[in-house]
UniProtKB/TrEMBL annotation:
Keywords: Oxidoreductase. It holds the Pfam family DUF6537. One of its GO terms (molecular function) is oxidoreductase activity. Residues 260-465 form the DUF6537 domain. This is DUF6537 domain-containing protein.
Length: 511
């Protein structure tokens, strides 16, 4: 084995696991494997502050019992309860940014075997950033290869999902394949069998990760972002999937290959948000622009991406639907590691605004109410306040379920009229700009990334969206327009307030 530890020196292991990744299970497996094979094992854990502001750190020290014998008895060792900087033999992370956090905390050194998964569980900061705030993991991989004795990585969560298991099983397989512990592959598998829970699925995920890491050691693979665009998947032709299969064939025949993946993602999103007819409407709106596009289809790609976002805005129906979906409750149970028969309640925070209220009304009525100051004052006094609801109670669940099922009503609402009028205007501006300046047409397409969420977040994004559109359209003949647009987009993405963007535009126009 590659482990060359003295008999009286412990093997030190730190595991950083995000909630729901089974860190407790994985640390238990490691401890059990050690204890069953002649080692003294101690495990402690330090919980993160909150979901995605810090993973739970599980720390283990394993000590060969042969070095603990004295007068024929095993002496109880004194082991550390917390990891010390630059003194950890194995560091494992169930998510790539947690691997970065481990290096930031000096857990990784030239004595460390670093094993991490490249999948992403987005942090709050990444989600709240206007547009695409997802951090690039390439720097993490580069630092890992520079500072660790051995850096082993791959999308271990995907491997687990392919075998209908969880990442703890695939991480266990990766650890076995690394050779960083003095145990055989069969000894690791015996531990899984000993637990008697989901043995087959866990073993399959273990073997998948084991083979992957063994192959990785023999021939290192380049880093590929877990959120990287994927090719259109092959779908079974069962009756259940005929609609999806039909869309796949249509996209492949009517759209260029470079944008297949993003168009297909848009179709799936819109079909789920409303229905297949609405997904077809998306394709019909997109197709004329693709026909006019040239080269690498930069405009088509960005338009396909943001048009799907524009046509699937966050309304009351969508939010209610998301809060009552079966997969949401499954995810909650998974995150808090609850058992299937445990009773778990979720507390949701709601703050309905006046625009959300009149946006849900029929078109003509909503337009009339939106201009009624007395109605707005009445709403502000009686309705405009925070609410904390237990969405798992029968009363609130039925209310949310009923609201989430009102998709047929959506197309008649004032909010839908507003959003589609906005979309049509945006597409019209892109079409006009396309004949003048291709690059600026692409910039116009990208402005929709500023609109997201609902309530105050939506209002701020909408304001910045309009400022960017007005600036680009009024500066189409300016030779520096593209440079200015790039700068202004950066300002809009970095500053939550509309005033910062407005001030930057005024400074540019003043000069």
């Amino acid at each position: 084995m590659s482990v060359a530890k003295k008999k009286n020196e412990p093997i030190k292991i730190a595991l950083l696991a995000v909630g729901g990744d089974g860190g407790g299970v994985l640390s238990g497996w490691i401890r059990m494997t050690a204890e069953d094979n002649g080692y003294w094992a101690q495990s402690t854990s330090i919980a993160g502050v909150a979901q995605r502001t810090g993973a739970t750190v599980y720390y283990m020290e394993l000590m060969n019992k042969e070095g603990l014998e004295k007068d024929g008895k095993i002496q109880t060792p004194v082991l550390a309860q917390m990891p010390a900087p630059f003194d950890i033999d194995i560091v494992m992370a169930t998510e790539i940014m947690e691997a970065g956090r481990a290096m930031y905390r000096d857990f990784v050194s030239d004595k460390t075997t670093l094993i991490f998964s490249t999948n992403r569980n987005l942090a709050i900061k990444e989600k709240e950033t206007p547009g695409d705030g997802i951090l690039d993991g390439r720097s993490i991989v580069e630092l890992a290869e520079k500072h660790a004795k051995k850096s082993l990585f791959g999308n271990l969560k995907l491997i687990a999902e392919q075998h209908k298991s969880v990442i703890s099983a695939s991480m266990f397989g990766a650890l076995a394949a690394s050779g960083a512990l003095p145990f055989t592959k069969q000894q690791f598998l015996d531990t899984i069998a000993k637990t008697g829970i989901a043995v087959q699925a866990s073993s399959n995920a273990f073997n998948g990760a084991y083979d992957y890491i063994k192959d990785f050691i023999a021939k290192p693979k380049p880093y590929e972002p877990a959120l990287k665009k994927a090719e259109i998947p092959a779908m079974p032709s069962s009756s259940k999937n005929k609609t999806v299969a039909g869309f796949i064939n249509y996209i492949k025949s009517e759209f260029p290959k470079p944008i297949h993946d993003v168009v297909f993602s848009g179709v799936l999103h819109l079909a789920d948000w409303h229905n297949a007819t609405w997904a077809q409407e998306y394709l019909d709106k997109l197709k004329p622009f693709v026909a006019k596009d040239q080269g690498e289809y930069t405009l088509s790609f960005n338009l396909a991406k943001y048009l799907a976002t524009a046509m699937a805005y966050d309304d009351l129906i969508f939010v209610a639907d998301q809060k009552t979906r079966t997969e949401r409750f499954a995810e909650v149970y998974d995150q808090i590691e609850a058992k299937p028969d445990d009773i778990v309640h979720t507390l949701d925070f709601l703050h309905p605004s006046f625009p959300e209220f009149y946006g849900f009304l029929p078109k003509k009525m909503g337009l009339k109410v939106s201009k009624n100051k007395k109605m707005e004052a009445w709403f502000a006094k009686r309705m405009d306040k925070d609410r904390r609801i237990k969405s798992t109670s029968l009363f609130w669940y039925l209310n949310l379920y009923f609201l989430g099922g009102m998709k047929r009503w959506r197309m008649k609402t004032f909010r839908h009229y507003e959003e589609m009028d906005n979309v049509d205007g945006w597409l019209g501006r892109i079409d006009r700009m396309l004949s003048q300046n291709y690059a600026l047409a692409v910039d116009l397409a990208k402005t929709y990334r500023l609109k997201k969420g609902y309530g105050d977040t939506y209002a701020r994004g909408h304001g910045k969206f309009w400022l960017m559109n007005e600036f680009i359209m009024s500066n189409a003949d300016n030779g520096k327009a593209q440079k200015f647009a790039a700068h202004l987009m950066e300002v809009a993405l970095q500053n939550p307030k509309v005033e910062a963007l407005r001030k930057s535009i005024e400074e540019i126009e003043a000069n």
